[in-house]
Design brief:
Blueprint lengths: L10 E4 L4 E6 L2 E6 L4 E6 H12 L5 E2 H12 L3 H17 L3 E3 L1
Helix pairs in contact: 1-2, 2-3
Length: 100
Amino acid sequence: MRNMKITPKSRVRRTPDNFVNAMLDDDLVFMDVAEGQFYGLREAGLRVWQLIEEDSGAWTQVQELTTALCAEFRVDEEKCRRDIAVLLDELQAVGLVELS
């Protein structure tokens, strides 16, 4: 479901593994095996990925991600929520996550 409005109640999970990934210094680098494309995450984006991955295929609510990042990075909740929505939209566009 692409281009859906991401709200605090939206849920996200990783998609089936069509990607290989590895840590490279402080970045997590993904390669889309089928397409040969590379993507990377660092800092807060990497932390969002880790929080999603912790549930290993289970759905995670956006509000849970927002709460965790606000506590860890000491950022404004509304700005954090907007930044997470942008990141999740980008991750969904390349097939790394799915949203409901």
